[in-house]
Structures are given as C-alpha cells and as structure tokens.
Amino acid sequence: MSDTPVKQQSTAAFYGQAVASFAVAMAATAIGIVRLDASAWVRGFMAIAVLYLVTSAFTLAKVIRDRQEAGQLVSRVDQARLEKLLAEHDPFEKL
C-alpha cells in the first residue's frame, strides 16, 4: 500500500489573493449599499440579501469540497485494494 500524502492544491499566494478579492468585493458592495439613493429599509434589505448570498456561497463551496474529498477517499481505498490484489497475485502459479 502506498503512503502518498495528500498534496495541498493551492499556494499561499492563491489563498491571499482569494481573501483579498473577497474583502474588496465585500467592501465595494457595502459602500454601494450605504451610498444607495434609497430608504433605510431598502438598504437594510439589500445588506441582508448580500449576507445571505455570501453564507450560501460558502456553504455551497464546502459541500462541493466535501464531495470531492469523499471521492478521493473512495479512490484511495480502491487503489489500496488493487495494490493488495496485485501484491498477492503470482502470475506463474498454476491454475
């Protein structure tokens, strides 16, 4: 069986860029809502809608990641079974 560690797929620079991008998008949206020429009720509704959209996006991303990780685990189990079968198989053994 192989003890191949799972490799991290994103670099620190990519992580930093994603965080910075999220921060800029949230700040721009907040500034847009605050400067919106509408009543406080409408601005409040827009703020709640944006927060709901952000939490839904985070939840969706987590669900997708969890499914992908579960698929990788099943794939690793299948690979381990195959390696065990190949290690136990003697091609020169008479049937």
Automatic annotation (TrEMBL):
Q: Where is the YiaAB two helix domain?
A: 14-66
Q: Which InterPro entries match?
A: YiaA-like, YiaAB
Give the residue spans that cross the bilayer: 12-34, 40-61
Question: Pfam families per the record?
Answer: YiaAB (PF05360)
Keywords assigned = Membrane, Transmembrane, Transmembrane helix
Membrane among keywords: yes
What is the name attached to this protein's record? YiaAB two helix domain-containing protein
Q: Which organism is this protein's natural source?
A: Streptomyces tricolor
Q: What is the lineage of its organism?
A: Bacteria, Bacillati, Actinomycetota, Actinomycetes, Kitasatosporales
